[in-house]
Amino acid sequence: MQDSSTSGADPLISLTGVSKRFPNGTLALDNVDLSIPRGQLLSLIGLSGSGKSTLMRHLNGLHRPTSGVVNVMGVEVSSASNRQLRGVRKNIGFVFQQFGLVGRATCLENVLTGALGRLNGPRYGVWSYPKQLRSEAFDHLERVGLVNQAYQRADTLSGGQMQRVAIARSLMQQPQIMLADEPVASLDPESSAQVLDLLLKVAVEEQMTVIVTLHQVELALGWATRIVGLRDGRVVLDRDATTLKQEDAMEVYQRVDKSLDPDVSRQPDASGVTQRAVQVAP
Amino acid sequence: MSGAHVEPLTKNRAGRPRQPKNWRNPTLLAITIGFVVATAWSWNFIDMTLLTLFGGLSDLGNLLVYMFPPIFDNFPEALRATIETIWMALIGTTIAVVLSVPLAFLAARNTSPHPLVFAVARGVITLTRAVPTLVLAAVFSISLGIGPFPGIVALGLHSVGMIGKLFTEAIESTEFAPREAVLSTGAGKWQTILATIIPQIIPSCIGTALYRLDINLRESAVLGFVGAGGVGFLIQTELRGLDYQRAISAVSVIFITITLIELISTRLRASIIGDHLSTPTKQNARSLARVARDQRLIEAAISTRRLTPPWIYERILRVGTGLMFLSLLVVALFTIDMPIISAYKYGDDLVRSIGRLYPPDFTFARAELIQGMLETTAIGFTATLLGLVIAIPLGILSARNIILRRSVILLSRGVLLLIRGLPELIVAVLFVAAMGLGPVPGTLALTIGTATFMAKLIGDALEEVQEAPREGVSATGATRVQEFISAVLPQALPNLVSQTLYMLDVNLRSSTVLGIVGGGGIGFLLLGSIRVLDEATVGAIIITIFLLVYAIELLGTFVRWMVE
Ligand SMILES: Nc1ncnc2c1ncn2[C@@H]1O[C@H](COP(=O)(O)OP(=O)(O)OP(=O)(O)O)[C@@H](O)[C@H]1O
Ligand SMILES: [Mg+2]
C-alpha cells in the first residue's frame, strides 16, 4: 500500500498532513499526505463522499484546509493571499463534471474567459479581448474539434461538446497542471471516451501534470501512471498503475464494516457531490 | 400611481401563481372573515352607502355629458406634455436602473461582500419602495422647483425599490458552476462576475426595466398634479377651469400613448427574453430565411476566421434596440433640459430639503394624521371589495370556456384592456371633478382599477380550471349556473383569495396618494402641508405613510406565508 511512484526531489504538488473539517462537522479529508512530481498522470478513485472533490479543490484554493499544508508549484496554497492564489490558479486547468460554461454566451466567449487570468480589468464580450487572444481561442476550439461551433451559444451543445469547450477554456490558460473532477460522469460512453482521449492527448502534448477523478476503475487503470484511492478522507491506496490489478483497485470500493463506520450516510449516491454549494475562497 | 398594474412581486414570473391550500383551510377562512369585518368597518367609516354609490354614478354620467364633444384645439399642447411625460419616464427609469445595478450586487446573497453591506443595501431597496413616487415628487418640488426635474428624481429613486429587488433576485438565481469554473482559471472576482453573472441576468434585467418603464409612464402622467412636469399638469389645469371638453382630449392623448407603448414594450420584452432567438417558434418563410441567413453568416465568419462575431439576426436586434434606446435617451436629456451640469448644486438642495423634514412634528396635525390614516385604510378595503364584486361578473364574461359566444368575450376583454390603459390617479382626478372632494371618488377610482385587474385574473383563472369536474356535474343534468357555482368556483377560489389580498396591498398603497388630487386619505393633508411649507409636518406625514406601507408589506408577507 505504501510503495508508490512518489519520488523526485522537487514535487510539483505536495500535501502534508492535510485535514478538512467542514463547518457542519463532516471530516472530508483526514491527514492526507501526497506528493506528485511533474508530468505524472494520476487517477484518484474512491466511493462517493470519500473526499476526491474536496482534495482537488484544495489544490487550487477553492477550499482551505483545517490543518496541514498544501504546496503547489512552490506556493503554499493553504495560506496564500488572493493575489498568490490567482497566480497559482492561472497554472491549473480545472475541468468540472458540470462543465461550468455560461450557457447564454458563445463557445468562443467561454473559451476566452480562460484568458482572464492573463488580463487586467474586467472584460465583457468577444470584442473586449485582444485580437491575438481571440485567434488563440479559435486555435483551441479547432484543437477540440469545435471550431464550427465558435459562434454558437454554449447551451445549444451536447454534453460531450460542452466538456470539450471547457477543456478548450482550460487550454487557454496554458496550464502546467490539469485537474479534472469526474469529467465524464454526466456523459454517455461514447462521448466519455472521446473527452477522456482528448484530455489525455493534450495533456501529453503539453507535458501537463494531470489528476483525474473517475468512477470507472477500468478507465483509470487504462491510462493513469499512478492510482490513488481514498476512503473516508484517508489515502488507502497509492500504487503504480502498471503493477496494480483491477481486484486490488476494487478493494477501495469495498465498504468498511458498518459497525466501524458510524456515518451511514456515506453511501454511494447518484447525485454528484460536486453539485452542492461549496465555499469558495475569494 | 397606478399600482393595479404591478405584478405581484412574489409571484413566480415564469409560471402561474402557486395554488394555495384548499379553500376550506382555517387560515383562509380566518383571513376572509378578517377581510369582511375590516371592509364593513371601512364602508361605514367613509360613509359609503348604496345611495352615494349610485349618486356618484349619476354625477359621472353628468361629467361625461359635459365632456362631449371633445375639443381638440389643445392637441399640440397635449402632445408636447405627453412627450415630456415619456421622456420623464425614460430618464427616471434609466436613473433607477443605473442605481439598482450596483445596489443589487451588494444586496444579493451570493455577491454581497459583507453581511453589513448586505443589510444596508437591502434596507435601501426596501426604503425606496415604501415612499410613493408622487409623495417624493411633491417633497422634491419644494427645493427643486416646479417642472419635470423633481418628478424625474422621484421616479428614479422610487423605482429602485422594485428594480433593485428584481435585479437582486435575478443575481441570486444565477448558476454557481460557471462562476466557480471561471474563478478557477485565475480570473479576479469582478472579472468573474462580469463574465459569468452578467450574461445570465441581462435578459431578465431588460425585461424588468421595460416593465418598470410601462409603470413609470403611468406614474409620470400624474406627476403634474404636484407640479412635477408631464401631462398631469395640463389635465388638472383644464379640470380646474371646468374646461371638460379639452380635459378629455388631453386624457385621450395620454391614454392612447400609454396603450401603444405598452403594446410595443410587451412585444419587445417577449422577443428579448425569448430564449432562443435563433430557433424561432413560428416556421414561416420569413423566419426560415432568417435562420438560413444566420447560418450562412456564421459559416462565412468561421471559414475566414473572422475574429468578431457575425451580424446574425439576434445580434442586430440586440444592438439595434440598445442604440435606439441610447438615442432616445439623448433626445430625452436634451428635450427635458436636465440641469446635469449644475447637478451638484441641486444635489445639495435635495439633501437640504430632505434635511428640513427633520425633526418631524407630529403634534401640529395629530388629529388629522390619525383621521387621514384611518381614511386611507378604509378606502383601500372598500375599493378592494367593490372591485371584487364588479370583477366577478366581468371576469366570467371574459372566460372563454364559460361564455361560448366569441363576440361577448372579445368585447369584455377589449373593455378591460382599454380601462387598464388609464392611470388610476387620472381616473381619480376625473371622478373628483364630477363628484367633488372626498373619499368616495377616490374609492371609486381604485375600484375601477381593481375591477379590471381582477376581472382579467378571474377570466384567466376560470380558463385554467380543469374540465373534468364540470363535465361530471353537467352530466347529472344541472343548469349552467348550478354547474358554475358547484364546480368551477371552488376550484378557482384559493387563487382568488390570494390575488384579492395582493390587490388590497396595492390599493392601500395607492390610497396614500389619492388625497393629492382630493380623493380622500392622508395625501390631502400632505399636499396642504407642502403648500404652506410646513416641512416638519410633511416629515411627520411621510414617516406615517412609510410606516403604513411598511406595515402593509409585512402583513402581506405574513399572510402569503400563512396561505402558501
Ligand atoms: N461544502 C461542503 N460542506 C459540507 N460538507 C461537504 C461539503 N463538500 C463536501 N462535503 C462532504 O465532504 C465529504 C467528501 O465530499 P466530496 O465531494 O469530496 O466527495 P467525492 O469523493 O468527490 O464524492 P463524489 O464521488 O460523490 O463526487 C462528503 O461527506 C460530503 O458530504
Ligand atoms: Mg466529487
Task: Give the end-to-end Cα distance of chain B, rounded to a whole number of Å.
Answer: 29 Å
Contiguous uncertain segments of 5+ residues of chain B: 1-21
**What's the level 1 CATH class of the domain at 1-91 and 177-183 and 208-282 in chain A?**
Alpha Beta
CATH topology of the domain at 1-91 and 177-183 and 208-282 in chain A: Rossmann fold
β-strand amount of chain B: under 5%
How would you describe this structure to a colleague?
The complex is a heterodimer of chains A (282) and B (564). Chain A is of the alpha/beta class. In chain A, 28% of the residues lie in helices and 21% in strands. Chain A has helices at residues 52-59, 82-90, 107-112, 131-143, 159-172, 189-205, 217-223, 246-250; strands at 13-21, 27-36, 41-46, 67-72, 75-76, 92-95, 177-181, 209-213, 226-231, 234-240. In chain A, α4 (131-143) crosses α5 (159-172) and α5 packs parallel to α6 (189-205). Chain B is an all-alpha fold and 564 residues long. Chain B has a domain at 73-276 and 311-349: MetI-like fold, CATH 1.10.3720.10. Chain B has 21 helices and no strands. At the A-B interface, α2, β6, α4 and α5 of A face α7, α8 and α11 of B. Magnesium ion (MG) is lined by residues 52-53, 181-182, 272-274 of chain A.
